């Protein structure tokens, strides 16, 4: 029992180190892209990374759940209700900056939550991206098939 506890401790600490390294290098790369965007006046690459980085970090955080599911037996299922209720709104909010930078001639104030999302800064996009990425592994379930 003590050996399993010790193995889990090292697995979780190793995973924590990986998450911290990805976070630090991701923030450094995002800063590099922002500096490049300010010199070249082309912010699209920086905007795309600032949207995809929180989603990928959320995926990384949910990866432990996926490894737990791989050890179980049964049929793979997706919890569509959870995905629709939590996933679609968080995806909408996290992808909103790409809509803004896409150059489409639409009124962002007419979109749902458009005026709030345009003026709110990056906090809403970052949190929504983390939620969406994390949720992608948490909507997957494994159920034992009954005969």
Structure report:
The structure is a single chain. This protein has helices spanning 2-40, 44-71, 80-101, 114-119, 123-138, and strands spanning 75-78, 140-143. With 147 residues, the protein is mostly helical. Strands 1-2 form a two-stranded antiparallel ribbon. Helix 1 (2-40) runs antiparallel to helix 2 and helix 2 (44-71) runs antiparallel to helix 3 (80-101). The longest helix has 39 residues, at 2-40. It is flat. 15% of the residues are buried.
- Count of individual helical segments: 5
Helix content: over 70%
Across the major sheet, the strand order is 1-2
| Biggest sheet overview | 2 strands, antiparallel
Ranges where pLDDT stays below 50 over 5 or more residues in a row are none
What gross morphology would you assign? flat
Beta-strand content: 5-15%
State the end-to-end CA separation. 34 Å
Mean pLDDT score? 86
Q: What is the string of helix and strand elements?
A: HHEHHHE
Alpha-carbon Rg, integer: 19 Å
Structural class: mainly alpha
Number of E-state strands: 2
- Quaternary structure: single chain
């Amino acid at each position: 029992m003590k050996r399993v506890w010790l193995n889990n401790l090292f697995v979780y600490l190793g995973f924590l180190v990986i998450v911290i390294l990805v976070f630090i290098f991701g923030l450094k790369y995002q800063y590099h892209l922002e500096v490049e965007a300010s010199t070249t006046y082309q912010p699209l690459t920086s905007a795309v990374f600032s949207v995809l980085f929180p989603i990928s970090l959320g995926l990384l955080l949910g990866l432990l759940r996926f490894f737990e599911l791989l050890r179980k037996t049964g049929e793979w299922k997706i919890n569509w209700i959870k995905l629709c209720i939590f996933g679609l709104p968080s995806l909408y909010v996290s992808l909103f900056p790409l809509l803004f930078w896409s150059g489409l001639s639409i009124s962002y104030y007419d979109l749902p939550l458009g005026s709030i999302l345009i003026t709110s800064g990056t906090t809403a996009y970052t949190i929504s991206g983390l939620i969406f990425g994390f949720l992608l592994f948490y909507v997957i379930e494994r159920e034992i098939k009954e005969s």
